[in-house]
Write a structure and sequence with these properties.
This protein has two domains: 163 residues, Growth Hormone, Chain: A; 184 residues, Up-down Bundle (Growth Hormone, Chain: A), CATH 1.20.1250.20. It is 77% helix and 1% strand. The chain is built from 17 helices and two strands. The protein has a two-stranded antiparallel ribbon with strand order 1-2. Helix 1 runs antiparallel to helix 2.
Length: 422
Amino acid sequence: MTAEARMLRTPPPFRRDAMVHAWLMMKALSDAGDAVWTIAVAWTAVQIASPAVAGLVVAAGTVPRAVILLLGGAIADRVDARRMMLLFNGIRVIVLAATAVWILTNEPTVAILLAATVAFGICDAFYEPAAGTIPRQLVAPADLPAYSALSQTLSRLGTMAGAAIGGFLVAWTGMSGSATADAITFVVVIAFIAIWLRPRFALPRAASGESVLRGVASGFRHLGQNSATRTLVIAVSGLNLAVGPALAIGLALQASEHGWGAGAVGLFEALVGGGAMVGALTVVRWRPRHEATGAFWALLVQGVGIVALGGAHPVLVGAGCVVIGLTAGFASVLLGATFAATVAPDYLGRMSSITRLGDDCLMPLAMALFGALAAVLPSWAPFALYGGALAMLMIVPLRNPRLREIALRREAPTQALEDVGA
């Protein structure tokens, strides 16, 4: 149904691929800048508004992103990804510079924070689907797991460093200094994309004759006709729906109910983050022969880890956090690589946008349901329900024969999941 990617340049072995390694460092730098910006927005909003309004400001970017994301995916499948990334990173720099100048000459207001956050959400809706196609344009399918592992590890380190710096920076320089710092990281990324980043594999482009809305509709038709792609997209979309509420809400509830204190929540989160980095790096040295199958088995084990979070002893909860971190890092790398390598290339942007949209739209509902269950059931019950549901749901992809057959190490180029009518 789709042509295989045409090689433009033969890439060097991944361990010696200087361009890809440099690009991943640039992404980590950008993540650090984003963490600085997020902390600055949250801190400033808390200082000038009520907690409820501050929460609205921080979350405001998700609404326009959710509305526009599908359009961004359809456009990403028909235009050059680098140009989209350059354009919307440039717009981000303008937004940050304008915010910094405004706050230098005026007091920060809720309106200016909302405007900046919404503008970032709109940029994300176009930038992220385009950026989601870049890995497949840079490395061969067999190297995608290693690419994802290193990318996730460096991004986590960048976010952690940015978060650590962000608190001091906003206290020292205020909102304008934080916005300037984030703008500088985007300028560096723009320069790298323009000067050095060059795709090696040309992806087929979607038909440009149809409207963008028709392109969105054809993406959903493609999803409906391809059962393996559909199962993979649903799995990637729902990666965080069980574990996100358990960590974000459940850990705080457990620490409060058992008197462990806020420090315990920080320790548990650190165990998750450390475990995720170890799990991701494991893929660099070892990965299963069938990547998708290995990832789904890891997520089944993650369900057990979520159940363990409902325990009454901090050691059991800590062990659950380690299991969740290890399996999350391991599974997300393998599923991300499988997704990038096997989804039909002229639908990759649209499928990427659908996976992101699922997380944006369903996570608030998952959070609210977890809180509602915790209010009426024993404290362990929401963890058991969410963890058990995740483990049971993994049976569906594990039973899919097309997903079980995927092996990215094969010498022949990986074929798209073309099981129309399966």
